[in-house]
Amino acid sequence: MDRLAAHVVATALLTAALAAVPLALAKPTSEASTFKVALPAATATPSASAAASAVTSNPAPTSTPTPKSTPTKPELVPIPCPDAFQVGTTSYAHWHGMIAFSVKQFYSPKCHSVYGYAYPWLQFREQKQHYDLGMAVFDLTHDAIVGARTFVNGTAGPDFWSAPFVPTAGTCTQGLAHVFFPDTETDTFTDKFCL
Question: Is the pTM of this model over 0.90?
Answer without folding.
Answer: no
